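Hey, I was hoping to borrow your eyes for a little while. I've been puzzling over a protein and I'd love to understand its fold better. The fold is given in discrete form, as structure tokens running alongside the sequence. I'd be grateful if you could look everything over and explain what you see. No rush at all, and the record is pasted right below.
>
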Amino acid sequence: MKHTCRYLQQNTELQRAKQIAHHQPDRIIATSIDQDPFVRKLSFAATSRITKEIAQDLSEFKCGLAHLFLQHTSASLTINENYDSDVREDTETFLNKIVPEGRSAPWKHTIEGPDDMPAHIKSSLFGCTLTVPITNGQLNMGTWQGIWLCEHRDNATPRKVVVTLNGI
């Protein structure tokens, strides 16, 4: 770690970036993306939708972070493989196995139906936030990585993702 830090301090490109950052204030842009209800069985591969919605704002950043926040407690955000849809189906199968649903499940909180409490648990397992690096105006993710918006309810409702971009 110390060797890496020493290397970074000697790196002239990093020094130049620090000079630019010193003279250029951080930018912060916030927007929200509304997603219509979608079928629960397949989590929505949201990468292309999100990048399309924020493309113009994203292009203004050389370096920074994109923070995504889902304003719901029965859906979630995660990053996972984005190529093979079997991964999404297998993930749904696994979640249903570890968090059972139905009238025989042990949950007390069933105000909105038998999938209500399981949806909250599944949402807690994945979470409602993501932070993705921005490099040269694009989300800097791996080749096979994609953003999933996971719906955990049978009767889905519209979902809202707040995106905050921060950087230079």
Q: What stands out?
A: The chain has five helices and eight strands.
